Amino acid sequence: MEKVKVSTDGTIDFKTDQSIPTTAKRFRQSQEIEAFYRFVMENDLREEALAILSVIQEEREALRIFEKEEKKRERQLARKQAKEQEKLEQQKAKPSKKKAAKTATKKKAAKKKK
After folding, report:
1. Number of independent structural domains in the chain
2. Does 109 fall in a domain?
3. Domain assignment of residue 57, given as a range
4. Is 29 within a domain?
5. Span 6-34, pLDDT tens digits
6. Which of 5, 45, 53, 106 would be a feasible disulfide site paired with 13, CB 3.0-4.6 Å?
7. Does 40 reside within a domain?
8. pTM for the model
């Protein structure tokens, strides 16, 4: 179960696991992180590791913000659609002024004929 591979030309390939531990303590104690720390210390790659972790952290933060904004947009759209549906139902429940006027005119005409 190798998570880090160093090729002959010096490039480093990290296989990332998207399951993120929920607490900082669990994060530090996870096997992947312990192996990562060991690899970094053995190969004296502290600066490079910091850069990599910073990039990963920024990407996850951006993803979290994007998902939060997306949920907000979905809630706003749902509210807007609910309001529009409510307006349509109210319009259907109220007879229109033209229809009411026509009905009143017909009733008056029917009374005059009698």
Report:
1. 1
2. no
3. 4-101
4. yes
5. 677 777 766 655 566 667 677 777 777 78
6. 5
7. yes
8. 0.45
